[in-house]
Design brief:
Number of domains: 3
Radius of gyration: 23 Å
Low-confidence stretches: none
CATH architecture of the largest domain: 3-Layer(bba) Sandwich
Largest sheet: 7 strands, mixed
Distance between the termini: 32 Å
């Protein structure tokens, strides 16, 4: 008779472990331009204001106001992230309660281009905010991009850009250690094939090996919501309507990632402040630059000048490379999953297996020519991962995306991933979600896992604060 568990958590990412359980550079980030110009955002607001004043005195003062606004609203924003989302009627009532609420709702729906043109004057400053909207897949003209850009920039200004010494796997290991100290058991290198039970209640999980593990009370999923609903549960447990909705779920834009081992640290064209930053955005100074990327990407075309995020891993954490050497990664945001064309003129392949290395060659040449002059000459080894590679390696990185679903106004809050699953619950009474496919979405906040734990304990009749 196999051992029975009170709760089974599927998916050993940080949100899964956080649900089961219950680090900052001086320059959190910089934005470098092909001209050699740079904006560095410092933890100190006034240092950042001085940086921005080189481009626009008005925008510098606006930055101060925007960051101070975040400080005032920080507790409320944090509380909203680390709590289950309110229902749509409740959220609407809160917005309608005051003129300030309606203005907040308007801001939450505004595109970054609309807001930036109303609020800022320098293209460089507009680009700074616009680049952060791209982190969550919002083009300059997508609804909701303005608030995303402001929130992302504000958080890094306020609390820094946290990099874990030794790599992000240390977070997983720390959470695993805490879980095991409280009696939890972790099994790795096994895949759940099916959740067993009926429309009312799940009773066990079946592994790919055929082993079945009974679930005493509940099952929690940290895999992407599509895999959970369509594959693990299926029509028989959740019904055809919910399966159909998940099949129409929007996953967002894919990414391309390159890791490079270097014989020695590189030098940015923009100067030493760039290398002292946890990460650097590499782009032209215009929102039109981002608009071209999304036009190409969403049309299936490999972008000629994509948005590239350069991570100075070993410069911030020397333990990641041998003495005298260096390690960097480049995350290329918004590339097509299915290639139908090429704006570079150098990549004839129309599958990622054919195009990966040629596109990586092109990107290295682009970065070397415009941003890091000594990059190409210092590379000892390069490993590139296309969207297809990423989806093969990580089952929940559907179509080579990072957020378990596009971050759109109609896939956020209580609507994430779909309204029927918006409170970390499925149609099956004892099956829950705790992944980035739930509120508040992607990022290493641990919030989806924490919020799911709140809902689970509430359903079990236990007080969350007493339990933790």
């Amino acid at each position: 008779m196999p051992h029975s568990y009170d709760a089974i958590v599927i998916g050993a990412g940080h949100n899964g472990l956080t649900c089961a359980c219950y680090l900052a550079p001086e320059i959190p980030f910089s934005h470098a331009f092909p001209t050699g110009d740079i904006i560095s955002v410092h933890r100190d607001i006034e240092k950042t204001v001085a940086e921005l004043a080189r481009y626009s005195v008005k925008d510098a003062a606006t930055w101060r106001d925007l960051m101070n606004r975040f400080v005032v609203e920080k507790d409320a924003i944090t509380a909203a992230m680390f709590s289950p989302p309110p229902s749509f009627p409740a959220a609407a009532a809160d917005f309608a309660a005051s003129p300030a609420g309606m203005e907040a709702y308007r801001f939450s729906m505004q595109s970054i281009r609309s807001w930036a043109n109303q609020t800022l004057e320098a293209e460089a400053t507009k680009t700074l905010f616009g680049s952060f909207a791209t982190f969550l897949g919002a083009s300059p003209d997508d609804a909701g991009g303005a608030e995303l850009g402001w929130l992302f920039a504000s958080v890094l200004q306020n609390v820094g850009n946290n990099l874990v010494k030794g790599g992000m796997n240390r977070v997983t290991l720390a959470l695993a250690e805490d879980l095991q100290a409280h009696g939890g058991e972790i099994r790795t290198s096994v895949r759940v094939q099916k959740i067993l039970g009926d429309a009312k209640r799940a009773t066990a999980v079946r592994l790919a090996s055929g082993e079945e593990i009974p679930a005493g009370q509940l099952i929690v999923s940290n895999v992407d919501p599509g895999h959970l609903v369509i594959d693990l549960l299926g029509v028989g447990m959740v019904g055809q309507e919910i399966v159909d909705k998940m099949q129409r779920y929007e996953w967002g834009d894919s990414v391309f990632v390159m890791f490079v081992a270097l014989e020695s640290p590189i030098n940015y064209k923009a100067g030493p402040a760039a290398r002292q930053s946890a990460h650097v955005h590499l782009s032209e100074p215009s929102l039109e630059f981002f608009a071209r990327i999304y036009l190409q990407c969403r049309g299936g075309v490999l972008p000629a000048a994509p948005m590239i995020v350069s991570w100075n891993d070993s410069a911030i954490d020397p333990s990641r490379a041998p003495a005298g050497r260096a390690l960097m990664k480049f995350v290329v945001l918004s590339v097509p999953y299915a290639i139908t064309g090429d704006a570079t003129g150098r990549v004839p392949g129309r599958t990622w297996d054919e195009a990966r290395e040629l596109y990586a060659d092109y990107l290295i040449d682009l970065i070397t020519a415009n941003y890091i002059p000594d990059l190409k000459a210092k590379i000892l080894k390069r490993v590139a991962h296309s969207p297809v590679d990423i989806s093969r390696r990580i089952i929940s990185a559907v179509r080579g995306t990072l957020g378990q679903g596009a971050f759109l106004p109609y896939q956020n809050g209580a609507l994430r991933p779909i309204p029927e699953l918006g409170q970390y619950k499925t149609a099956v009474s004892n099956v829950y979600l705790c992944s980035s496919g739930s509120h508040p979405g992607p990022g290493v906040s641990m919030a989806p896992g924490r919020n799911a734990a709140q809902m689970i304990l509430r359903d079990l009749g236990l007080d969350f604060m007493t339990a933790v």
